[in-house]
Hints:
The protein is mainly alpha-helical and about 230 residues long. The chain has one domain (about 60-230). It is built from nine helices and no strands. The protein has helices spanning about 1-10, 15-35, 45-60, 65-100, 100-110, 120-155, 165-195, 205-225, 225-230. It is elongated and about 70 Å long.
Amino acid sequence: MIDTLKNLLQHFTPLDLAALGVLLIGWLGGTFLIERDNAKRPSMHMLMSDYRLKWMQQMITRQPRIFDMTTLAIMRQGTAFFTSGCMIAIGGCVALLGQAEQLTMLAGDISPEFAVPRIVWELKILLLMVLLANGFLKFVWSMRLFGYCAIVMAAVPNDAGDPEAEPMAHKAGNLANTAAKSFNRGLRSVYFCIAALTWLIGSWAFIAATLATIWVLYRREYASQSRGIIEG
């Protein structure tokens, strides 16, 4: 096993491994920071979590609840869209993996710099598939959690004086937050999958694309105009 790993690594340069490390740090580290609770400067994700809990509290006395169910249905539709997109992209990667030999020959014809063993292209494509598969699983679970949330919402009493109203609404809010967390994790997998696609061009392009993705995530979570509106 160790010998096999060494044989695989010898086909990659230190810059390739550094680029892969930047992606892993940005992907996993970004998830930790964005989902960190009790932070002095909460992310957009955490700010919206508070609003989902407030939404469920307001739903208790809302008559009728068509608005609430319509909003939840829209969220599920968005999740279903990305689930389908990931499935199609995974199928494309499988097709590309089957043409790895032709891809290797074509890359060698374009430039001697791209003349690398077939296993290198296959592993780069497999990285894309891992990120897409993770996104797919997160989106599927998010869609199912939104379904659970809909059922709990329907069970929340309309009477604010009912002792079960507040606890049930809080459960619905927590389910909505958990579903949103899974959805956002799926989105981040897609973001970094797009960055990893540039690894087919080269390591420097991979690093640049990953850093650009990290910047986009930071801006959307901590420095966007929409965040200023929500926080204000």
